[in-house]
Amino acid sequence: MNKEHKLYLKKLKKEKRSIIFFQILILVVFLLLWELLTKYKILNPFIFSSPSKIIITIKNLYLNYHLISHILTTLYETLIAFTLGITLSFIIAIILYEFKTLNKIIDPYLTMLNSLPKVALGPLIIIIAGANSKSIIVMALLINLIVGIMNIYNGFNNIDPNLIKLFQTFKASRIDTLFKLVIPASYKTIISSLKMNISMTLIGVIMGEFLVSSKGIGYLIIYGTQIFNLNMVMAGIIILIIISFILYKLVVYIENKLIK
Amino acid sequence: MTKLLSIKNLKKTYYSKTDEIEAIKDISFDLQKDEFICIVGPSGCGKSTLLNILTDMDTKTSGDIIKSPNLKFGYMLQSEAMLDWKNVFDNVTLGLAIKKIKTKENMLYVNDLLNKYGLSEFKNSYPKELSGGMKQRLALIRTLALKPDILILDEPFSKLDYQTRLLVSNDVYNIIKNEHKTALMVTHDLSEAISLADKVIVLSKRPSYIKNIYEIKRKENKGPIENRKDKNFSYYYDLIWKDLTNE
Question: For the complex shown, is ipTM > 0.95?
Answer without folding.
Answer: no
